[in-house]
């Protein structure tokens, strides 16, 4: 019996073999982990998030924003689904001009959700539709930017129409599109629409607002028309604005008496562009 037990014990050769196999397996596992970590950190390095103070590229510039926005908030004239209260829907078309060849279009946005299926990019002169990559866009929340990825390169001196639908929130922190009348402060326009939200990017704004029938929509320019479109909703459209920076663009939907005053020769840039900037004054009852 003792001899059988002794024979069943592994020899030094077999022990070395087992040790070698074990070490080999451990090394292979460690190498796999190491390779995975290297690939992960390389991908993170190649796609570093943009810093919070990142500036927009100058490869394209905006020429005109055409915006239609509908606001939802508790109102005696209309009934909105509970999940839509204190939100707004936007439909935006931006005419842009390509300055230098690029396959990216980067804009500012904050707390806005773009409907991916609504994206369209059309070359203005040829009416050619340009498809988007997959994914069509990426949002950098820290930098407050969104980058769109067309499959074709945009060419210098050509103009394009970039269209999209999106949703946002009517904030209560007096920033962006909030629950009161306002004009945007620098960098707040990006909370109302995806835009080139830096002062040097000047463009024309053409606005249409859909709002409850017992309210009034106001903007920088006089209204062109106001009409009932359905139930207790009214559509108000405004004249195109003068060329201006995004932070001067103003939207208001009010349900209180107001007075409009105008101020000319408002300095909006170093060229002293002459505009008629509408001021909104709430009259306390």
Q: Return the structural class.
A: mainly beta
Q: What fraction, in percent, of the residue positions are helical?
A: 10-25%
Q: What would you call the shape?
A: elongated
Question: Which ranges are low-confidence, i.e. pLDDT below 50, for 5 or more consecutive residues?
Answer: 1-7, 43-48, 173-183, 261-285
Rg, rounded, reads 29 Å
Biggest sheet details: 9 strands, mixed
| H/E element sequence | HHEEEEEEEEEEEEEEEEE
Determine the strand fraction and express it as a percent band.
Answer: 35-45%
* CATH architecture name of the largest domain: Sandwich
How would you state the average pLDDT, rounded? 78
CATH superfamily of the largest domain: tricorn interacting facor f3 domain
Tell me which oligomeric state these chains represent.
Answer: single chain
- According to DSSP, the number of beta strands is 17
What is the total domain count?
2
Structure write-up:
- It is a single chain.
- The chain is mostly beta strands and 285 residues long.
- It folds into 2 domains: 2-46; 60-282, Immunoglobulin-like (Sandwich), CATH 2.60.40.
- The protein is built from 2 helices and 17 strands.
- The strands form 4 sheets. Strands 1, 2, 4, 5, 8, 10, 12, 13 and 14 form a 9-stranded mixed β-sheet that branches. It has a 3-stranded antiparallel β-sheet with strand order 3-7-6, with no helix packed on it. Strands 9-15-11 form a 3-stranded antiparallel β-sheet, with no helix packed on it.
- β12 and β13 (233-238) form a beta hairpin.
- The protein is elongated.
């Amino acid at each position: 019996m003792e001899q059988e037990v002794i024979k069943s014990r592994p020899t030094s050769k077999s022990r070395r073999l087992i040790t070698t196999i074990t070490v080999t397996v451990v090394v292979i596992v460690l190498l796999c982990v190491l390779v995975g970590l290297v690939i992960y950190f390389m991908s993170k390095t190649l796609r570093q998030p943009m810093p919070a103070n990142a500036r927009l590229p100058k490869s394209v510039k905006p020429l005109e924003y055409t915006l239609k926005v509908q606001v939802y908030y508790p109102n005696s004239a209309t009934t909105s689904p509970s999940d839509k209260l204190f939100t707004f829907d936007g439909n935006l078309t931006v005419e842009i001009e390509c300055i230098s060849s690029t396959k990216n279009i980067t804009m500012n946005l904050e707390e806005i959700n773009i409907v991916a299926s609504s994206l369209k990019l059309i070359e203005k002169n040829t009416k050619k539709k340009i498809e988007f990559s997959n994914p069509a866009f990426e949002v950098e929340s820290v930098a407050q930017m969104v980058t769109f990825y067309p499959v074709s390169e945009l060419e210098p001196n050509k103009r394009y129409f970039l269209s999209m639908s999106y949703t946002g929130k009517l904030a209560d922190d007096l920033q962006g599109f909030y629950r009161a009348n306002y004009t945007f402060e620098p960098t707040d326009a990006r909370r109302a629409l995806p835009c080139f939200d830096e002062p040097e990017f000047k463009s024309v704004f053409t606005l249409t607002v859909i709002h409850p029938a017992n309210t009034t929509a106001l903007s920088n320019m006089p209204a062109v028309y106001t009409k009932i479109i359905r139930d207790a909703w009214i559509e108000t459209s405004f004249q195109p604005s003068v060329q201006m920076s995004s932070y001067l663009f103003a939207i208001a939907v009010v349900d209180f008496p107001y007075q409009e005053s105008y101020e000319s020769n408002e300095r909006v840039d170093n060229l002293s562009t002459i505009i008629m900037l509408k001021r909104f004054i709430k009259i306390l009852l």
